[in-house]
């Protein structure tokens, strides 16, 4: 939900539309960018009800502005997906569903999950993936804490550190040793740091997968 990953979404969406339609085409989209500091404070406080109300109001505004469907550009805040969906009449393109479809398309069933502590430790995201028949592995306590720290202290602030990339590679290696066949980059900022070329396992980059699904829905 930081502007760092929102910028990546916007670039990837327009690049994809240009590839599909050619020429000077770009995406017709309505972007509502929240103040991430306010959302992060609600996350830390565990006040998910208020966070859901905030994003539901944003969703109503997007619907009123003419959006045909919604893309919530953050894995973590899918914890309040139900609050958003009940606030509007247009569909929400759920990020975990797009990701699960890609994992199945790759012929895999057991995946490691990297993301914020909320995404890795709470049930809302893992259960959604499991509902698609996937087995989801998460890092141990120390690794989860480090992944979470890098996301909030570095990536959300635009800091891309090679040392952190190496630490993420080590975490992924331990997930592979535990049986992961692939790894879900389950925070939309992680792709700013690491990608398929940095990993021995197949990588499922949720930002790009979400963009692909959104563009396909737009052009259908």
Automatic annotation (TrEMBL):
InterPro entries: Asp/Glu/hydantoin_racemase, Asp/Glu_race, Asp_race
Keywords linked to the UniProt accession: Isomerase
Domain of life (superkingdom): Bacteria
Molecular function terms from GO: amino-acid racemase activity
Protein name: Aspartate/glutamate racemase family protein
Family: Belongs to the aspartate/glutamate racemases family.
